[in-house]
Amino acid sequence: ADKQRNLKDYFNTV
Amino acid sequence: MFEARLVQGNLLKKVVDAVKDLVTDANFDCSSSGFTLQAMDNSHVSLVSLSLRSDGFEHFRCDRNMSMGMSLGNLAKILKCAGNDDIVTMKAADDGDTVTFMFESPKEDRVSDFELKLMDIDSEHLGIPDTDYAATVTLPAAEYQRICRDLSSIGDTVVISATKDGVKFSSSGDVGTANITVRQNTTADKKEEQVSIDLKEPVALTFALRYLNSFAKATPLASHVSLSMARDLPVMVDYQISDMGHLRFYLAPKIED
């Protein structure tokens, strides 16, 4: 099944 | 001192109603360039980014950058007390711990003010990189809302596939399967029915419908919504707020393990 990704895999904390 | 006067006050009500179920408490950031908010939902799967430019307000003053932490549920309760055509003015002292909302009726025969306590919310700010999207689909906001609602009765995930022929939304579940295809029709006689697809290359992504449905609460804000997609990247769901800015949502995809 497709795993729900987390936004923090893509956007870095600034 | 921060003071901002919005003639179309119900815009603020629509914005808060659009995000209050996704994000419970958030920081509104004020600077001379405008009024913004960026917040993730609790599971860090989706993010909302609001930007209202200062020139969209009838009057905008922000002596010092400030961040105002608010409970969006309480803010929604206060904005419910505003008349649909009221002018809304927000005011906050630089080092104050409250923000005041003033509602004036168009005939100025009714003026009310509500004071909301500010909260200390430590929210991390995310850097959203500029993305060269493979496909950007612009469709009527009501159409997008209907697709999300219809597919939610079939399954809890949707595969959005953009090709040159159109954009297909597919979902399957115990009930069965559903495919909704929307084709480009830039010749639609009425502008509000136009669908346009800017395709650099075909792309297909899988998302959880409950978030896409939640984003559709922003439908009252704009006639159209744009979905921007790139392989294995979050989708950007973008509502342009005329003459003021935008309310954007980002949702991380679901990817084969």
Describe the structure.
The complex is a heterodimer of chains A (14) and B (257). Chain A is an all-beta fold and 14 residues long. Chain A has strands spanning 2-4, 12-13. Chain A is built from no helices and two strands. Chain A is rod-shaped. Chain B has 257 residues and is mainly β. Chain B is built from four helices and 20 strands. In chain B, strand 13 (166-172) and strand 14 form a beta hairpin. In chain B, helix 1 (10-19) packs antiparallel against helix 2 and helix 3 (141-152) runs antiparallel to helix 4 (209-215). The model of chain B has no long low-confidence stretch (mean pLDDT 96). At the A-B interface, strand 1 and strand 2 of A face strand 10 and strand 20 of B.
Give a summary of the structure in a few sentences.
Chain A is mainly beta and 14 residues long. Chain A is 0% helix and 36% strand.
* Rg of chain B (CA only): 19 Å
Overall pLDDT level of chain B: 96
Mean pLDDT of chain A: 93
Gyration radius over CA of chain A? 9 Å
Helix content of chain A: under 10%
Regarding quaternary structure, how should these chains be classified? heterodimer
Question: In percent, how helical is the residue content of chain B?
Answer: 10-25%
What features would you highlight for this structure?
heterodimer, A: 14 residues, mainly beta, 2 strands, 0% helix, 36% strand, B: 257 residues, nine-stranded antiparallel sheet, five-stranded antiparallel sheet, globular
